[in-house]
Amino acid sequence: MNKLIALSLISVASFAGLAHAEDTKCDAPKDKWMTEDAMKAKATEMGYDVRQVKVEDGCYEVYGIKDGKKVEAIFNPATGEQVGAE
Three-class SS string for the chain? Predict the structure, then answer.
């Protein structure tokens, strides 16, 4: 029984760490951000047919088409690295 409790606590702690990592993926200061035009160009190079670029929760969200499907990709605004998709 104690092993089950310990395993449960470790699992909860692991998920809490992942949730925290999700919260900090786009925490760059605004003066370090690439421009929206640069983000659009980078996404285009990655194969996205960009329709719109928005800022949401400190990240760039790129709405467009990739591989024939509508996508919403999330990018770090300072590095242009893709950090998620919805």
Answer: CHHHHHHHHHHHHHHHHHHHHHHCCCCCCHHHCCCHHHHHHHHHHCCCEEEEEEEECCEEEEEEEECCEEEEEEECCCCCCEEEEC
pTM of the predicted model as reported, rounded to 2 decimal places = 0.70
First to last CA, the chain: 39
Structural domains in the chain (count): 1
CATH number for the domain that contains residue 18: 3.10.450
Q: Which two structure tokens, joined as six digits, stand for 53? A: 């670029």
pLDDT tens sequence for the chain (86 residues): 555 454 444 444 444 433 333 554 798 999 999 999 999 999 999 999 999 999 999 999 999 999 999 999 999 999 999 999 98
Q: Which domain holds residue 21?
A: 2-85
